[in-house]
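[SOLVED] Need 3D model of a three-part complex

Original post:
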Amino acid sequence: MASGHMSVEEVKKHTRIYWVIFSSLLLLTGVTVGISYIHLPFTYAVILALVVASTKASLVALYFMHLISEKAVIYFTLALTAFFFVFLIIIPWFIPWDFATH
Amino acid sequence: MTHAEHTHSGHHEMPFWRKYIFSIDHKVIGLQYGITATFFLLFGFFLMILMRWQLAYPGVEIPFIGKALTETGALTPDLYNALGAMHGTIMIFLGVVPMAVGAFGNYLVPLQVGAQDMAFPKLNMMSYWVYFVGGVVMMSSFLMPGGAAASGWTSYPPLSVTANNAQTVWLLAMVFLITSSLLGSINTIVTAVQLRAKGLSFMRWPVHVWAQVATAFLLLLAFPPLEGAAVLQLVDRVFGSSFFLPSGLYIDGAKASVAGGGNPLLWQHLFWFLAHPEVYVLILPAVGVISEIISTNSRKPIYGYKTMVYSILFLGFMSFVVWAHHMFMTGMGVTLSSFFQATTMIISIPSVIILTTLLLTLWGASIRFTVPMLFALAFLPMFAIGGLTGLPLGLTASDIHLHDTYYVIGHFHYVVAPGTLFALMGGVYFWYPKITGRQMNQFLGKLHFWLSFVAINFVFMPMFLMGSKGVSRRLYDQTGYSHGAATQSWNVIMSTAAFVLLLAQIPFLYNMFTSWKWGKKVENDNPWEATTLEWAASSPPPHENFPTPVEVYREPYSYSPTSRKVRPQFSQQEA
Amino acid sequence: MSVQIPYIDEPHPVTGVTNAKLGVWLFLASEVMLFGALFSALITLRLGVNDWPHGYDILNVPLATLNTVVLIFSSVTVVMAWASLKMQNLSRFRTYMVLTILCSFIFLAVKAVEYGHKFEHGISPATSNFYAIYFVITGLHGLHIIGGIIVNAYLLGPGSRMWKTQPERFTGRIECAGLYWHFVDLVWIFLFPILYLL
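Solution:
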């Protein structure tokens, strides 16, 4: 419960989690920077970078933004947004380029 | 509320500028939106009258005002282009959307859910003023050297990126208008969801509230990509980047000096990602308004309320995944065309369901032919014509022939002009007693309706024929082509009808202004015997709408099946 | 004012959230779509050319890594600021809020150094599409940082007077400001690898 009434002990427990998340985020930042120095083949580099970034983003969203215990109305909004976001992101793969080179 | 007795005189006399200019009362803001949007609608209409003169009498001096516009008194091709771009922009972004969403949404949603105001009153005020600034900036584009933005309301690059500076102003104005819409839509959703009166479950929402909430979600999620695209185009224009400019671009036969590497189709995708949902932003509030009017005046519940609600939601959802049917002719490929062709056919299903439920509501009803009802009844066939003529455009094969012809113009104007605008005009007649406590004059209303109804069909119906003959939508003078010359006489009819349509608005405006003071006073707060919550408030409603909280006892549109007696949502009695 | 808006400081019994919280999430939803469009543009441009540069070759990875750490830290401090209020500790809230704002300024300063380097070498959005999208996305992100600074500074300064009169509502405001700030962090979490590391 993020917005409800929490006891001081509960909040304290939360704050400990925040610092754990913080160290995980630092660790993952190190990982993603480290990977970039290896110069993997492009496809693998992209996949790895996005996996790490998504993990970090999920940690932030779930714990700092309290999405792990949020209400249905928020989930609904975000699910809708995520769905249309996917459409936005797949646009580029359907844009032809050959007219530019002819 | 504990201090109910204070509420009537409690907030003393606010100074004029707090009460009417920088007001945070959703009703005043709604009226501000309405008045501003009316001005822009008339202005946009006026631009079209100038263009229609040119179309009917190419190169002939415009009577009275022509000399003030150009040297010869006739429109120049450049000015014609600018007027076309500004007509579209003004009508959509400064006229119809602010009217449908800003005015009707703002005024009615809090009342219909039984709230005292919007959830965020100051944000509401801000959204109006951001819109106002956007409107002023957009108008200032006319003052730019070289004339107003002339790249069409769609602003396709490379044309728009290489156009004169007015285009930069257009983009800046769009950023303001989009921001305003975003603020407004957040407010609408939160108000409708959070501030519902006791007993008002979601399935007791009036259809108008559903429509406004669906619209708000469209604005919320579809507008930002255009804002992003506008920023990219702005950077292209101001800082010389090439997001939308391809390599090897030739302008006027010479190689353009651009960095290149961009793609103009990216703009089209991002633009239509907004602009197709935008079509439903235009139509959904109208459906909401029409539902209220039809149910009230036929003394019957909406036939299939739930079907209607689900159709609206499905329509809103699907409107996000049909955008590329505007781009069949760009060579985007068969896969994509087939996908969007299929989704376009699917989206026609909920539209037809909505129309059918409204039509079936009339079945066995005891209809009262009031002025708002006339507009609502006209809306049904007009919207049907607009919608059904869209199907050939959604199929790639027929779109090849019809794309960018007058057929397209006829199609979407049938949806927006005799569709949405008629609905909104009906809405003005319908809620006028609530806003002012007085009725509008019925005779002038009927005059306005019949003149408009006949004239508007003479304006847009010939467009289908002309488009089928292949006349392109952007021609300054079509007589230069044989197929254009053959259909030129229709242009005279259409232009005359457009002028009659303009005149037909005079009784409406006269009626609207004079009835404010001299209209017949309503004898009670629910003159139409409607069922929804706004009719529980006094007319006009006080600043806090409902001095004592209202409670909801039943679904909307409840009428006794035998006596047709009204059973309002806010009344405990079964009537 | 006699107008009373309910569910400002207590959650709605059915939806379980306050008005502001629903509002801020809706706003963030629109922000997702805004940045989504820009990422979409980035991918489009990248797919269109063969000679797209590697970010690590032409951008300053160590500085960006520093900025990543700074932003992540500020995300913790802003959520700790909220937790401090939950524990009724206003002075600790102040400390964390000051830290958050400090981090935002460090971020902007580092960004300014980065931009400065580019401008010195005559690099602008017109140089190439890589730089164009780099400047637009990081610039827009920078504007969001500035917006966050303004909001957080207000809540630290004059806005905090609300703590005395309506502590619940004030805590809610900090939570909402925090949500926004986490989102700004979240955008950067994706920006960093996509622009700098690939």
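Edit: Residues 8-101 of chain A form one domain.
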